[in-house]
Amino acid sequence: MPRIVLVVAVLALATGLGLWWRARNGRYTAVDPALLASAPADAADDLRLTPAQLGAPLGARATFVQFSSEVCAPCRRTHAVLAQLVSEREGLSHVEMDVVEHLDLVRRFDIMRTPTTLLLDADGVVVGRMSGATDRRHALAALEASCPGGVPAV
Fold this sequence. Notes:
This protein is of the alpha+beta class. The chain has a single domain (about 25-145), classed as Glutaredoxin (3-Layer(aba) Sandwich), CATH 3.40.30.10. The chain contains 7 helices and 5 strands; from the N terminus they run H-E-H-H-H-E-H-E-H-E-E-H. The chain has helices at about 1-25, 35-40, 40-45, 50-55, 75-90, 105-110, 135-145, and strands spanning about 30, 60-70, 90-100, 115-120, 125-130. The longest helix has 23 residues, at about 1-25.
């Protein structure tokens, strides 16, 4: 009988952890605006990415910076979602960065899994992040949260 209770407890714990993990996948986490406003200039620069660092221009409204790895199936799905969104919406940009080639940025932004997508405003300041596979709904919600005026379709 104690073995059955142990097996049921382990299954319940695993199910709970799995549901928690799935619920967090692709969810947008905004950077606290008070942190951005009150940060000293040098600390604010830690939250900023330049076109030179990205190797691509910033979007006029927002830029998705996706950190991916070579053997990551969710990375390919996220890339497809973001690429389609960028092609449909004006002022957006999408940059994909390989975690192996950009370890300095991985450490700087505490990238712990792929895909992780940073959302930058028009000035290149990180305003939020999405960890895990991102779907269209989550990406649009992130844009609405960071671009209150909305992002018009092309």
